[in-house]
Specification:
Length: 167
């Protein structure tokens, strides 16, 4: 049988469209989260990377600049610049390490903690919006799955130096 367009009328199997890869969905979520975070923390005079660094310091006070850089997903050079900026803003302070005189440990200041609290209120609202309709048990599974996936990709040795979860 021939159709008006000259094609044969043989029935074609409907092609199954595969679901998007999980890596694609994670990247879509990351980009959407980043866009919202940029707006939220920008209103407080921070970049998303600076907010990340302050969050890391809240969970890990007294780490070195090198550790802060790794946990904030920036190079050592970018981390040093970021530490200098945050220190000039009065949001962090560096103190000599009692164990290694050449290493200076980084801590949040009271102003840094207050600014982080202000940002966190809005970030909490963003997370609530993102997780709307997802029950608590599924949220716990999602967190556990993301933590395991991160550890798997970094390997057990490197995993200890990677932030396991956000606030």
């Amino acid at each position: 049988m021939t159709t008006a367009g000259g094609r044969t009328g043989a029935t074609r199997a409907v092609a199954r469209v595969p679901a998007p890869r999980l890596t694609y969905l994670v990247k879509q979520a990351e980009l959407a989260i980043r866009a919202h975070l940029d707006r939220i923390v920008g209103r407080h005079g921070l970049t998303t990377l600076q907010y990340t660094a302050l969050s890391v310091l809240e969970r890990n006070p007294g780490i070195s600049s090198a550790q802060l850089s790794r946990r904030s997903f920036v190079t050592a050079q970018a981390g040093n610049e970021m530490v200098a900026i945050l220190e000039r803003k009065g949001l962090i302070e560096r103190q000599p390490s009692p164990a290694h005189l050449r290493i200076r440990l980084v801590y949040l200041t009271a102003a840094g903690a207050a600014l982080l609290d202000s940002c966190d209120a809005e970030v909490d609202a963003l997370e609530a919006r993102m997780l709307r309709g997802i029950d608590p048990a599924t949220r716990r599974q999602l967190r556990a799955g993301l933590e395991s996936s991160t550890a798997n990709l970094h390997g057990e040795a490197a995993g200890s130096d990677v932030p396991r979860c956000s606030r």
